[in-house]
Prior knowledge:
Blueprint: H1 9-13, H2 15-32, H3 37-41, H4 48-61, H5 67-70, H6 75-79, H7 86-106, H8 112-128
Amino acid sequence: MNAASPVTPYDMIGGDEAVVAIVGHFYDLVEKEPEYAALRALHAADLGPVRHSLERFLTGWLGGPRDWFDRGTCIMSMHRAFPITPAIATQWSDAMGRAIIAYRTETPALNADLAERMAEKMGHMAQGMINLAAERADAPAA
Length: 142
C-alpha cells in the first residue's frame, strides 16, 4: 500500500506557476517602485539570474523540487557579502508581502492563511539576514 505524498505549501499555492508569478511580482516591484530603490541598488543590472534563483529557492523552500538546495548553497551565507540593513530587509519583506498579495488577488483560490503565513515567514527570513546596523540618527558625523 502506497501512502499518498503529503501536500506541501508548494502544491497548495499552485506549484511552479505560482512561484514564478510571485517572484515576477516581487522583482517588478523592486525594479519599478521608488520605495525599493535601496534594495534594487544591491542587485545587478540584469535581474534575470536572480529572478531564476529566487524562483528555485522558493520552490524548494515551499516543499517542491529541491534543486536549489541540492547545490549545497546556504541562503544566509550568499547574502553576507551584501550590506543588508534593517531598512533593506524591511523593503525586501514588504515587496515580498505585496507580491504574495498580488498573486492572491489574481488567484482567489489561494488560501488566505497560507499566503499570510508565507509572507510572515519570508519577512522573518529577511530580518535574519541583517548584517549591518542602521546608522544612528544621533551618531556624530565623520
